[in-house]
């Protein structure tokens, strides 16, 4: 037995040593941004740190816990001079980090008072393959939208630098959210992309649909009253927010008709139930003919 155990144990110890060494490297928090709906953004710098779109890191804050490591998706683009994560305050550890960063105080927090952070990573995900397709469907559910913040930022940087060499030609973006508060921090990025694409006369490059899956009677009345306004009452975008859940069969069929003979990447960051639905639709809407349209499904679950 020991002959079969020694090899894997040696590799495991090597991996732990590498992770320990990486976690000891100095990380500098350059900015802490408080977003609505109890979400904070940490912008950090680390010597030699290199990332790709949609990757994630493990984070430890010794001031909160000396042993706990938590995974967070990177929301910055590789083209930016820092890396960032968005953290939603939903538990003891995130609440402790929120307080350690001074987010519970009204006065300005000095940089030297910010807690020490250890970072291990980045680690790869399916989202890295976005630029391998000409057409992609990006589907995020709730806070699962974070990897696509990185993707959309990177697409924009690449598009501005040299659009002719960019293989990706069309993005269909879907965001499903249970309540209106979660829209606020991410809508700013979409507003910026929307305005810049229109300035360059290429508004068709990004098609996005935002779905609100839960609301009360008061909100519904407010939505009806302001429905005719030029911009959406929730997000401030020209694209109106849709209510309920997408009809995925219709969405897949429409995209297949628009892009015959294409390989279309379908990327999800969301719950397992939604993953099963999209996987089934990807299979049923792909043609048997190799020259026909094919949907390639990729997922990250949380």
Describe the model.
It is a single chain. By secondary structure, the protein is α/β, with parallel strands linked by helices. The chain folds into two domains: 100 residues, Beta Barrel (Elongation Factor Tu (Ef-tu), domain 3); 173 residues, Rossmann fold. Helix content is 32%, strand content 26%. It has seven helices and twelve strands. The strands form three sheets. A six-stranded parallel sheet has the order 10-9-8-7-11-12, sandwiched between helices. Strands 1-2-5 form a three-stranded antiparallel sheet, with no helix packed on it. A three-stranded antiparallel sheet has the order 4-3-6. Helix 7 links the parallel strand 11 and strand 12. The longest helix is centred in the first third of the chain and has 22 residues.
Layout of SSEs?
Blueprint: H1 2-23, E1 27-35, E2 39-46, E3 56-60, E4 70-73, E5 83-88, H2 92-100, E6 118-123, E7 135-141, H3 146-162, E8 170-177, H4 183-199, E9 206-212, H5 217-225, E10 242-243, H6 248-258, E11 263-270, H7 272-284, E12 294-301
Q: Given this structure, which CATH class of the largest domain is correct?
A: Alpha Beta
CATH topology of the largest domain: Rossmann fold
Strand order of the largest sheet: 10-9-8-7-11-12
Number of strands: 12
CATH architecture of the largest domain: 3-Layer(aba) Sandwich
Silhouette: globular
Tags for this model:
Elongation Factor Tu (Ef-tu), domain 3, 302 residues, single chain, Rossmann fold, three-stranded antiparallel β-sheet, electron transport, alpha/beta, 7 helices, 2 domains, six-stranded parallel β-sheet
């Amino acid at each position: 037995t020991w002959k079969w155990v020694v090899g894997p144990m040696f590799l495991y110890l090597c991996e732990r040593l590498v992770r320990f060494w990486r976690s000891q490297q100095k990380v500098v928090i350059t900015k802490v941004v408080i977003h609505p709906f109890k979400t904070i953004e940490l912008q950090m710098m680390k010597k030699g740190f290199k990332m790709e779109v949609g990757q994630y890191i493990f984070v430890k804050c010794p001031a909160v816990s000396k042993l706990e490591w938590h995974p967070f998706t990177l929301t910055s683009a590789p083209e930016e001079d820092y890396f960032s994560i968005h953290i939603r305050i939903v538990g003891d550890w995130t609440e402790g980090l929120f307080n350690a960063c001074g987010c519970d105080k009204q006065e300005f927090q000095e940089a030297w008072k910010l807690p020490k952070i250890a970072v291990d990573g980045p680690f790869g995900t399916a989202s890295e393959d976005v630029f391998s397709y000409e057409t992609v469907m990006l589907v995020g559910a709730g806070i699962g939208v974070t990897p696509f913040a990185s993707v959309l930022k990177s697409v924009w940087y690449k598009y501005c630098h040299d659009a002719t060499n960019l293989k990706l030609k069309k993005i269909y973006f879907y965001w499903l959210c249970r309540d209106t508060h979660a829209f606020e921090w991410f809508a700013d990025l979409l507003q910026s992309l929307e305005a810049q694409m229109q300035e360059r006369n290429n508004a068709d490059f990004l098609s996005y649909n935002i779905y609100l899956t839960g609301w009360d009677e008061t909100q519904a009345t407010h939505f009806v009253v302001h429905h005719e306004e030029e911009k959406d009452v929730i997000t401030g975008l020209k694209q109106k927010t849709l209510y309920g859940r997408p009809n995925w069969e219709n969405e897949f069929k429409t995209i297949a008709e628009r892009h015959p003979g294409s390989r279309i990447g379908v990327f999800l960051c969301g719950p397992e139930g939604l993953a099963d639905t999209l996987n089934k639709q990807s299979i049923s809407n792909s043609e048997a003919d190799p020259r026909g349209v094919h949907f390639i499904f990729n997922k990250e679950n949380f």
